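Internal tracking record. Fields below are filled automatically when a chain is submitted to the structure queue. Please do not edit lines marked as system-generated. If the sequence contains nonstandard residues, flag them in the REMARKS field before resubmitting.
Queue: standard
Priority: normal
Entity type: single polypeptide chain
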Amino acid sequence: MEDFADLVIVNATVHTMDAAEPQRVSDAVAVKGGRIAALGHHDVSQLIGPDTQVIDAAGGAVIPGINDAHLHFVSAAMAAFGYVRLEPAVAPDWAAVVDVVEAAPAGDDGWVRAHGWDEALLGPAEGVLLESRPDTPVVAFDSTGHQLLANREALRRAGITTDTPDIDGGVIVRAADGSPTGLLQDGAMELLSRSTPPVPASTMRPALLALQEQLHSLGITSLTDPGLGPASAGLMDGAGSTAALELLGDLAAANELTLRINVLMLFAGTGGANAHAVEAGLRSGLADAYRHRGIDPAQLRIAGVKVFADGIPRSGTAWMSEPYGKACTHGSLVIQGATDGERVAELHKILGLINDAGLQAGVHATGDAATVAAVEAIIAAADGPAARPTTSGNRHYIIHGAFGDPGTFHTMATHGIGYSTNPLIRQEAGDIMRQVLGEDRFARHQPLKSASGAGVHFNLASDAPVTSTDWRRTVVAAVRRATRSQPGNPRDPERITGLESLAAMTANAAWQDHAEHFKGALTPGMTADLCLLSNPWPVDEDIEKLLDTEVRLTLSGGRIVHQANLVHQAT
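SYSTEM-GENERATED OUTPUT FOLLOWS
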């Protein structure tokens, strides 16, 4: 009968994430026609017909589909399924890294591409791979996406020599005689990545589909890929090219894309962003590529443009108001310009162009000075004079935003500027960050509770492949604020609760996507993006139980995209 539900889940703990009632919990949910049809045992039971699939949750939690608001989908797919893997479990020291690279077969294009080494765990990286595989070009990307190692043959093919000058926002790490060691940081990565052959679609397509399946098995139904397009050679592994954008469109057109993906275009890489490059990118028409193909924007859309305002503290490229690190540097913006003033002015031009194009700007800013500059530039572009308390309809936001004071957060909330950050990065890189920043400054790193208290629209994201795609680890990291070597302080004022973390990865992330009207909550009429967990949502004191909780069912628009160990009831 046409009034019956397609699927219902009973005996559940349904966390609706209802904007009107954030703590609202129900015990059953019905899905019909790809949308939530009803909540609660009484209403749901009326919709069970002979063909309705009835699933017994056995007390498990039902939550909205996880929306990872900063996940490099293309790069993460290549790191997991396309490249030689160098993560600590595979290569726990530099000697092992060298051994893995020496034994790895070259690809069809003759290159060895690897990913996953972490200087925070292994120690200084310069020169490690320089003399390996003398007849084969080798490039190994680090886990942060801000460094790579190349061997001498790869440097030769890229034309990188002692005479090659550094570029804006990038560093060619050199030996005492000025010769390159093979370590390239931030914008300098592009010098090497531009010379590597593009990843063929025959390799990338199965990697994307494999990662999609893996993400669904974790309960992830939406994500933002922050940085695909013509300047991809300067970001991560360089795989997120315009061709990768087109491939995503092919998957969507073929109905093979079951993740909802928002894309930020990249017109300038991790160093040297400038208004000329952004203006040229906007004029290219790339922002309309999916609309011209008739692709449903609820499935795949180009949302805006990513801009790198600064780098990261570990590389000394974050712009801080106080000096930090062994070099006792402030860092600087990595925007094009000879002085701080010129770089700030160029950032204003860039954000003005993006805003006037009606697109969203995601601004990478990790230092406190960079964050303030980015916020001021967003206000100037979107809202006019800073004193005018209006809200930007484009929903520009700060990416990572590792530092923010109450005044900055109040300004962000007043002007509708969002905030997306990554607790699992803080946990995994926290020990080296503590050394770089000092204990007092590190304690203020990622001030989640302050942002929440100020009313900022904030979300939590993985930044995969920098960290794991497993959102459960992100939630635990936000609640505990621990590092690899030290447990979190239970009196840490910047801790947030598990349910606040869940909201940050569902309803709040939907706000960033301009999509809170159809996803991120489980209320009648919303799209049926959800997942069923094997256990109830744990209390904060036992939040680690989340790590042992299985995802038993994932729906994307009511379509089953993952199922495992389900219990069905007879109708």
